[in-house]
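Typical record was shown:
=====
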Amino acid sequence: MQQVIVIGGGVVGLTSAWWLLEAGYRVTLLERAPGVGTGTSYSNGGQLSYRYVSPLADAGVPLKALKWLFQEHGPLRFRPQFDAHQWRWLAAFLANCRADINRKTTNKLLQLGELSRRAMASLEPVVPLEAFEWRDAGKLVVYRTRAAFDAAAAKPNAGAVWEASECVAHEPALAAMEDKLAGGIYNGGEAVADCYAFCVALAERIGAHPRFSGFVHGKAQRFVVGNGRITGVRTSDGMLSADAYVLAAGMQSRMLGESAGLSLPIYPLKGYSLTAPIRQDDVAPEISVTDFERKVLYARIGDKLRVAAMVDMVGEDLSLNAHRLDSLTRQVKETMPRAADYTQITPWAGLRPATPNSAPIIGATPYSNLWLNVGHGPLGFTFACGTASLLANLMRGQAPPFGLDGLMLS
């Protein structure tokens, strides 16, 4: 029975560990933090949006990005740095900003989204839905401009097309912005949940699995290579060795990959979230809402409102930028003034490990015993179960259910 070390205790690492355990491997999980799910998984948008998977790179995005940079409350902030990773990533991102590439990647991500939906459903006997506030909320994307709304409505299989008044009728939390809306597109079957609670619940099940070898809490520092294989991973607590290794450590994956001569095309897209308690008389959204032009997500998770937004390209900076948080808070109060108790907001920031084409990287590397599950960007929670199941199949030599072109290390 092969022993595998999974590096990373976020939602991607934990799901990888579970699917490998179920596939017959013995697994050790290495996580640098004292607990699981405390990095990018901790307070993200809580979206399980299996159909709303459009890549960030698309035709027209560079021009939009330039406009956003000059908007006071724009969704994008860019801080140029003397960082080769930043400029290589930007060059690759711009190369992907073509309609034909976007369509191809979107189709692949839709296949991955459907696989992920089924894989998450298969976990229900193991991790009950109530353990992590899972709710079939549906997803409503609202548009402030008629041009954007008409373009979205014209797409094949767009979903239910609602005018502004219909959006408010279905989701009363939008009443304050009805006069600012052109309309919205609704899709059922999309869910919201607490990603951190999911991580904690799954970690408990992993800990009780008969093939689990244990959690090791220490920082992975580098891979040790010998005879064309990974012979170990050096950590802050010493050397760990196994038959195989899975890299699923978010942004830390890039540094660890470099220690083995691998160049992983991932860059941190910093995002922010606000969490506020919902009082008895508040009118919080029941449907998961995305404000398309402002790129702000609203989700009711249990008795709290979660708002997630913004992309800051500022390197590995996790500080809470007061100006960005104040801007987001003002927008939230304007859009949904009665949705939660905004005097009790808890702010958060996380680094989304994104690839230039928005597709995760799954599978083999030039080393026969090193495997990847990285680069999920803002869709880590959405895709985690799907990529974990794919990884387990690939490691066992089984054919994937669809072609993985665009989803593997090139």
